């Protein structure tokens, strides 16, 4: 190849590379609105973003992997914690974490109700942005895992296609054979529902996180149903567990970490996001924790 041919090759290659770059840039900009959930940017979301910056939340937390890595990443926080929990936490973090025991404590920001509502709206908008799995290994809130986080992208894509009786598997769900019992199926729901039950509950005795430990929940429920402390409508353990999943405020577990103003911090979305079959499987799994 002589000099003229080399120069021509370089010019053509540069031109093709530039054209591909411009095409990909145009394609990315074309998808920005969809990828960033732009239609959901409300005045409350904008206000929440302003509160986020005004209080320098990024000095401790990260969003989309950007920020300090001292406190949990909040990219998907509304998928892991409900609105009632976030509202109470932002009001007074000291009710949830002890500085001496946890060795860190979020400072009380003295936020107004409007600021808190805006922050939660901002977090919810962020949580619904298609971040395509980034960051890959965020620092999560205590005890939580993102559904399917231990699966490759290809495995998660395959899992999403799994159906049982016409019911799509939860995001990140692992494949199951058709002969698995309800307890095994319930454990699968426990770990892969959105938000995952493991985000707030431990199955280890005495390990209370955002929600109480579920170790021995069957025995505790039997004792509760026979006492005057129970305020719900359930008549047996299975009905109580079902009630706790679909209507968590029917009976409030004592403690400022679990409820406020008569409302449980447990998400109320399971009643519509899980099928009746999945809820029954989850109850079967919890019933096995004697």
From TrEMBL:
Gene3D superfamilies, per database record: Cytochrome c-like domain
InterPro entries the record matches: Cyt_c-like_dom, Cyt_c-like_dom_sf, Cytochrome_c550/c551-like
Domain annotation Cytochrome c: ranges: 43-127, 181-290
A Pfam family matched in the record: Cytochrom_C
Keywords: Electron transport, Heme, Iron, Membrane, Metal-binding, Transmembrane, Transmembrane helix, Transport
The keyword tRNA processing is annotated on this UniProt entry: no
Transmembrane annotation, as ranges: 7-26
GO terms, molecular function: electron transfer activity; heme binding; metal ion binding
Record's keyword annotation contains Transmembrane: yes
Protein's recorded name: Cytochrome c class I
Upper classification of the organism: Bacteria, Pseudomonadati, Pseudomonadota, Betaproteobacteria, Burkholderiales
């Amino acid at each position: 190849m002589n000099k003229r041919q080399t120069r021509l090759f370089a010019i053509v290659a540069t031109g093709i590379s530039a054209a591909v770059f411009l095409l990909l840039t145009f394609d990315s900009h074309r998808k920005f609105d969809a990828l960033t959930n732009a239609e959901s940017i409300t005045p409350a979301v904008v206000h929440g973003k302003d509160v986020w910056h005004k209080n320098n939340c990024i000095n401790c937390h990260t969003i989309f992997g950007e920020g300090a890595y001292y406190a949990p990443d909040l990219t998907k926080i509304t998928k892991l914690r409900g609105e009632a929990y976030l509202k109470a936490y932002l009001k007074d973090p000291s009710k949830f974490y002890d500085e001496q025991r946890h060795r860190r404590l979020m400072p009380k920001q003295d936020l107004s109700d409007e600021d808190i509502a805006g922050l939660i709206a901002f977090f919810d908008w962020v949580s619904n942005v298609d971040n395509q799995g980034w960051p890959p290994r965020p620092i999560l809130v205590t005890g939580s895992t993102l559904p399917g986080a231990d699966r490759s992208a290809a495995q998660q894509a395959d899992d999403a296609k799994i159906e049982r009786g016409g019911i799509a598997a939860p995001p990140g769900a692992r494949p199951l054979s058709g002969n698995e019992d309800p307890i095994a199926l319930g454990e699968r729901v426990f770990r892969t529902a959105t938000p995952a039950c493991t985000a707030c509950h431990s199955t280890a005795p005495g390990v209370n996180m955002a929600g109480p430990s579920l170790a021995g929940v069957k025995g505790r429920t039997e004792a509760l149903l026979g006492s005057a402390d129970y305020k719900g409508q359930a008549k047996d353990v299975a009905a109580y567990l079902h009630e706790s999943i679909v209507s968590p405020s029917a009976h409030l577990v004592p403690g400022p970490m679990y409820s406020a103003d008569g409302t449980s911090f447990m998400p109320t979305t399971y009643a519509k996001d899980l099928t009746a079959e999945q809820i029954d499987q989850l109850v079967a799994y919890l019933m096995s924790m004697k």
